[in-house]
Amino acid sequence: MSTDSTATPSITPAIHVLHNRVILVTGALEGVGRAVALACAAAGASVILSSFEQADLEPVYDQIVAAGYPEPAILPLNLDTATEPTYLAAAAVIGDTFGRLDGLAHCAVSAPFLSRIDDYDANEWERVIRINLNAPFLLTQACLPLLRLAEEAAIVFTADRVGRQGLAYWGAYAAAKFGIEGLMQVLAEETRASTQMRVNSLDPGILRTALRANLYPGEDPHSHPDPVTVAPAYVQLLGPEGRELTGQALRVEAGRAVLI
Asked: How far apart are CA 117 and CA 159, in angstroms?
């Protein structure tokens, strides 16, 4: 989920469990994506920062460089308007620059409003599905050849409780997140026997994000944890600790990825 772009999560230096790994993080502008990108960099990864505009990502880039972590790369991707050729071109850039991809963390999400199914605008339904389900599928598909070149690649799809147990008014976002769970399970089964790739979904829980504040404007944002608190769970799944896990729906508990 996204958070206020003015907020800068603090980072605790991590053991370099991701040393020499190339990790692509979507939604890296803010919220969970930003926290995960910073945590991966602190853990020694070369992080590919992805969001809508290059200029938006420059502060994150500068923060990583200033901290002395491996220099990141920026990969602008508009998940609302990108087409299959866009994703294939993005994967080609990654391949030309790094030669492989060790990890893909899908952290970008969009949930613009809550609405009854009776009232849900059809165009908005398609847009929310496009960003939250179609885009992760197309990006993953385009990156699979690069992920197969890694010794042990990891894909982490960001899940949500409303995509595991439906809740009223979450509409297209919930439907997309249910789809993400299915995509994760199918891909995990298809890669389980033939590669060292592992594929999992992770629910970070309710966090102090701009997305949450937009949907629940009367809620005290400080009643929820900062996204930085869940970043170690992503590092866990992207690194050697997660190598025995694939096809699992997990949640974050005390900064760790645990089975639901």
From this structure: 21
Query: pLDDT of 140-155, one tens digit each?
Result: 999 999 999 999 999 9
**What digits encode the pLDDT tens for the residues 54-111?**
999 999 999 999 999 999 999 999 999 999 999 999 999 999 999 999 999 999 999 9
The residues, ordered by sequence, that sit 6+ positions from 254 with a Cβ below 8 Å of its Cβ are none
Single-letter code of the amino acid located at 115: S
Look at the block and give the residue holding tokens 């042990």. 152
Residue 205 has pLDDT above 80, yes or no: yes
pLDDT of 14: 54
| Structural domains for the chain | 22-259 (3.40.50.720)
Helix, strand, coil proportions of the chain in percent (round to 5)?
45, 15, 40
pLDDT tens, 31-50? 999 999 999 999 999 999 99
Which residue is it, tokens 């398609």? Answer: 126
Instruction: Indicate which residues carry an active-site annotation.
Output: 173
Task: For residues 80 and 200, give the distance between their C-alpha atoms in angstroms, rounded to a whole number.
Answer: 24
166 φ, ψ (degrees, to nearest 5): -60, 140
Q: Are 104 and 143 in contact (CB under 8 A)?
A: yes
DSSP 84-113: HHHHHHHHHHHHHHHS---EEEE-------
Write down the pTM of the prediction. Answer: 0.92
Nearest to 42 by CA among 239, 199, 197: 239
